[in-house]
Amino acid sequence: MTSLALGPSWLDPTSLISTFGLLGILAIVFAESGLLIGFFLPGDSLLFTTGLLVADGGYLGQPLWVVCPLIVAAAVAGDQVGYLFGRKVGPALFRRPDSRWFKQENVDKASAFFDRHGAKAVVLARFVPIVRTFTPIVAGASRMNYRTFVLFNVIGGVLWGGGVTVLGHALGRIAFVRDNIEAILVAIVLVSVVPVAVELLRARRAERAAGRGPA
């Protein structure tokens, strides 16, 4: 299993898993799902690599039927914490100044995403890096109905946490994937940023259209 040369070595999924094991995976999934400091963590590639390593039998000795429910539970719990944090902090979150670990633009992106998609944003945001960390916080700050949030949170946790891991496990049994794992992980990272790029293009087009409109 090769290492993915993207960003710091301590963010490489294989390195993280080999060092911290299943507990490390659960901690990262929890943090990225709803803690402000978790937005930079490698969620998608980590889950995919987890599935690969379960299939490969390296580093992780637990079976898939144990790993997946634990990951889903960590993802759901992380969003719950994010929601409760947002509900407690409320409007103060939108006035918080930028710092090393916090950028107001991330909250604004999540807020726009939430406004556009409504309750289903809790599910869709799972598949959008950075946005998935801040969406449950924005949902809490917006006083989204708690029961509705829990329902969509569980659905999103199962589809993302379980789905991506199972996908990695299924593809990990294919020789081509095992032989080209680094290229596969790079592709996953690139695909995961496509929604962010699309949102940026839409925002720029909206700004240009507003600039051409009447005063």
Low-pLDDT runs of 5+ residues are 1-11
Radius of gyration: 18 Å
Class by alpha and beta content? mainly alpha
Helix content: over 70%
Number of strands: 0
Count of runs of 4 or more consecutive helical residues: 10
Number of domains: 1
| Gross geometry | globular
Distance between the termini: 58 Å
Characterize the main sheet: none
> What's the average pLDDT?
78
In what range is the share of β-strand residues? under 5%
Q: What is the string of helix and strand elements?
A: HHHHHHHHHH
Structure write-up:
Mean pLDDT is 78; it is low at 1-11. Helices cover 71% and strands 0% of the residues. The N and C termini lie far apart (58 Å). By secondary structure, the chain is mainly alpha-helical. It is built from ten helices and no strands. It has one domain.
